[in-house]
Specification:
15 helices; 4-stranded antiparallel beta sheet; elongated; 12 strands; 8-stranded mixed barrel; TIM Barrel; 414 residues; alpha/beta; Alpha-Beta Plaits; 48% helix
């Protein structure tokens, strides 16, 4: 059954106001949906609406029969749960009970909607929830009192959002300062022989937390202006984990342009990150193609100090939609990593084949090793090898490994 509009439930709301002497409400604002629409268009928004509507309707089935759920006509992404009476046998009003109910609703709905919006938005907070209560007054119209409880809910939602933002930032600060991150290592192999030649270090948030996924972790860091601080913590932890991992071959490490101007990572300072057992000649710093093009002058000026120490550079996500192939050919990168969007179903896509062949030929011309990312099938691997790509990375060859799991240590021993 579709959720009724606010206008359709107005007679019941007026009845509750008079019979109960007041009206309580909990408001759910699906704030992630309009952000998705602005960034990805109406089709993406409609897809999400089709997925989130059943979540809201399920909430309707879980509440008490006397309570009401309505959609606000002024904002289609706003749903209101009106409470018909006290939440316990006592006639005494307890706002703590209302607040606890709001917390439960936020947890149940927020987590599910968050999973749906996560592929679009690299951040937490898909739903804002607020609560309110108005005491009936004979001096004010019933309609105005209903609007007033909605306004109370909106004010509450705003306040709760600010408190959550504060908590999220404080939690992120703790993660950064305490280096509560860890590094998964995904193998890079020679496609023909499947011989492992290196690993890419992939930073993760605290194990089992809701910020373990890097897109969530770095999304929060971007929001709170802590990207460089998080990057520094991840970089240091990656070298520590790589030493503990003990795998042979080269370490590829994602980084951002700010790395090359970080005073703690310049000159001999970088050797403190590596420690005595990791030679710079076996470390490759990966920078995204878009970031390279946007920071071309910075990249050119700073890379030389790293090259002098023995580091190499890789340009990541090559061919992801930017027009910098000719520019990148002059930068002196040792590795070009083909974006997984081009790799996906490359055995079936003629245009992708032509672009990858051009990248492979350019790599050969500038003496840069080409690596294809995101290989998931044998057909993709074979097509890439036929196009002149010698090295690859992806689930077909191996998923990112937690180096400190029992399973991994058992595999090493055998």
């Amino acid at each position: 059954m579709a959720i009724p509009s606010l206008r359709e439930v107005e007679p019941d709301l007026r009845r509750i106001l008079h019979e109960e002497g007041g009206l309580g409400a909990i408001l759910l604002d699906l704030v992630a949906l309009p952000r998705v629409e602005r960034r990805f268009g109406q089709a993406a928004y409609q897809t999400l609406r089709a997925q989130t509507d059943p979540v809201i309707e399920e909430l309707k089935n879980r509440i008490r029969r006397e309570d009401l759920v309505a959609r606000d006509e002024r904002d289609a992404d706003r749903v209101i749960l009106f409470l018909s009476r006290r939440r316990n046998p006592s006639p005494t009003l307890s706002m703590a009970d209302v607040r606890r109910l709001a917390d439960r609703v936020e947890q149940q709905v927020g987590q599910r909607v968050g999973r749906l919006t996560q592929p679009y938005l690299r951040e937490k907070g898909a739903v804002d929830v607020g609560y309110g209560f108005v005491v009936w007054s004979p001096l004010e119209s019933d309609d105005r009192q209903v609007q007033r409880v909605i306004e109370e809910c909106l004010t509450s939602a705003s306040l709760r959002r600010k408190l959550q933002e504060r908590d999220h930032r404080e939690s992120l600060v703790e993660i950064v300062c305490n280096r509560e991150v860890w590094t998964a290592f995904q193998p890079i192999v020679e496609i023909e022989t499947q011989r492992t030649v290196g690993h890419e270090g992939l930073s993760r948030g605290p194990r089992g937390s809701d910020v373990e996924l890097p897109m969530i972790l770095f999304g929060l860091a971007g929001r709170y202006g802590l990207t460089e601080e998080l990057e520094r913590a991840c970089r240091r932890k990656a070298f520590q984990d790589w030493e503990s991992f003990g795998a042979p071959g080269r370490l590829f490490l994602n980084t951002v342009p700010a790395t090359v101007r970080d005073p703690s990572f310049l000159g001999n300072g970088v050797l403190d990150y590596l420690g005595p057992n990791i030679p710079p000649r076996l470390v490759t710093l990966e920078i995204n193609e878009r970031q390279v093009i946007e920071n071309l002058t910075l990249y050119r000026e700073a890379m030389h100090s790293f090259l002098e120490l023995g580091f190499t550079f890789a340009i990541d996500d090559v061919g992801a939609g930017y027009s910098g192939l000719e520019t990148m050919a002059t930068l002196g990168a040792s590795y070009l990593k083909i974006d997984m969007g081009l790799v996906r179903h490359v055995d079936q896509k003629r245009v992708s084949q032509q672009v990858i062949k051009a990248i492979a030929e350019m790599g050969a011309g500038v003496k840069a090793t080409v690596i294809a990312e995101g290989i998931e099938t044998q057909e993709e691997a074979e097509a890439l090898r036929a196009l002149g790509v010698r090295y690859g990375q992806g689930y077909f060859f191996g998923r990112p490994v937690d180096p400190f799991t029992t399973k991994y240590r058992q595999a090493v021993r055998t």
